[in-house]
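so my prof wants the structure for this chain in the tokens format not the other one, which i didnt know existed until like an hour ago. anyway here's the sequence
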Amino acid sequence: MTDRKAILVTGGAGYVGSILVKRLLQNEYRVVCVDKLRYGGNSLVDVWGDPNFTLHKIDITNFKDVDDVFDRYDFYAVVHLAAIVGDPACKLEPELATRTNRDASIHLLEKTMQSGIKRFVFASTCSNYGRMKDSDGYVDETSPLFPVSLYAELKVEFEGILLNRSTNDSLCPTVLRFATVYGISPRMRFDLTVNEFSKELALGRELLVFGEQFWRPYCHVRDFSQAILSVLSVPENKVAYNVFNVGDTSQNFTKKMIVDEILKQVPDGQVKYVHKDEDPRDYRVSFNKIESELGFRISRTVPEGIKDIVTSIRLGIIENPDDQKFYNIPISRSG
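here's what i got, hopefully its the right format
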């Protein structure tokens, strides 16, 4: 045992979690990771020998196993990342998504409060905003939420449970609405827009893009960890019962803008656009709040992330990027 503050990270072997775990250890936290390793545990090899890291191979829908973990440690904070992630994955397994993203999250929150733990950081999504009514504007943390998928609906539902509690209790909950993620991670994914588009064109394939005019905000996977670290390090009164969009306002792109950036790296890339008039998710997001209140700054931009992905594929750093292990859903090659 050490005197380091112990952090419980659910989903710590995942795309975001595997980077966060390493960053927490580097910042002198003790990390207890709970993950059922649905996509394997190779992402944790780099931290496996660290004496301040512990892994419990647990499905968070197994409440007894989760309770046992809480009973074994004195946690400073809970960072809740574990989920069935993304619209397609939740649509494919709706019952599992509901048990995991809602029911297990509620139990985790209840156990956090029973254990007297103050800090609870919840990974939510900018997908909660749905389609903007004003196509020329930006949504922010005060904007109404219009979830248009089961994934977003479950995130919005748990946000409400988390934030609508009495602020007189000792809990310090924080919601982080992540932008659309991209970039290299120990648990790599190629079912994400920037990663998928970059991979397809780097491999010399024709890329099929649906609805090239629709907007999304993007943020590098590495920067999510910095946002979480920022929340954990500031006084509670700055983040308690608070919501922050995580990203940078300059990193709102249409799909065509993403493709144009990739073509700067792959000038002979072949792209076919398929016209689409409607998309339930079409929004630009302001990230001024997290910058002004927490001093958060991104470290990577979309063009830099694209270059990393294209280069890694060309050099063979990521072998067989079509392998199913890099996808949360059955492989599809269309954007």
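also thought this was worth mentioning. The chain has eleven helices and twelve strands.
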